Amino acid sequence: MDDGQTWTAKHRFARIAPRKARLVIDQIRGQRCDEAVEQLKFNPRRSAVFIRQVLKAAMVSADESEADMSRLVVAEAKVDGGPYFRRWRPKDRGRVHPIAKRTSHIVVTVAEG
Length: 113
What we know:
With 113 residues, the chain is of the alpha+beta class.
């Protein structure tokens, strides 16, 4: 991160709860990009697929700018909550309970380290 050049990729409105995605994104923060992609490839969680796609998109942006791909690290990785859909679950005696279908904004920034 000597020259300050960074590349960012985002996936907005991803249909996964932010709490579930944060469990995976915390594991790759600060790692080298090739190690992070390998770790996400073998992670069984559904959010790992979303995060791997975003990480690869950031790496492609860096590659287009002719960055040194062997020195790329995950500089920033965060998951913010997006808007959520409100649904209703029927319950007994004519009642309903709310269901929140949550979305996430996944942001991954890579830099030469």
